[in-house]
Amino acid sequence: MKIKKAIISLLAILPISSIAFAADYNLNSVDVPVEPEQVEEEFLQRLEDNQLPLKYYRFLKEHKIENSDQLLSDDNLEKKNRLLDEYSKDYVAPLGRVSGTISIM
């Protein structure tokens, strides 16, 4: 019972945003190795489902890439890798999400 009171009093003096940030960081900082194939598959699925931020679609439009088949072609390999790197920073690496980098803009 004393431990509960101590935790509650500690939480009461901390700002709520600090607790939320700590909880989010803890959930996303698990060092689970991610296979590149999984990242690419997830990226392509989100791309098809229109679940990515607008910057990805703007990039594709600027480079006249109209669909996933064009993106996966050998001609666009460099652009696909660039998008996958950005996606990894935004969604796979937890600190990339916190930093808010937008390198493909």
Number of strands: 0
SS-based structural class?
mainly alpha
Proportion of residues in extended strands = under 5%
Series of secondary-structure elements, N-terminal to C-terminal = HHHHHHH
Low-confidence stretches: 95-105
Helical proportion? 55-70%
Main sheet record = none
Summed up, the helix count is 7
Shape: elongated
Mean pLDDT: 78
The termini sit apart by 53 Å
What would you report as the Rg, rounded to the nearest angstrom? Answer: 19 Å
Structure description:
- It is a single chain.
- The longest helix has 16 residues, at 77-92.
- Mean pLDDT is 78; it is low at 95-105.
- The chain has helices spanning 2-13, 16-28, 36-48, 54-62, 68-71, 77-92, 94-99.
- It is elongated and about 65 Å long.
- Helices cover 70% and strands 0% of the residues.
- It starts with a helix and ends in a 6-residue tail after the last helix.
- The protein contains 7 helices and no strands.
- It is mainly α and 105 residues long.
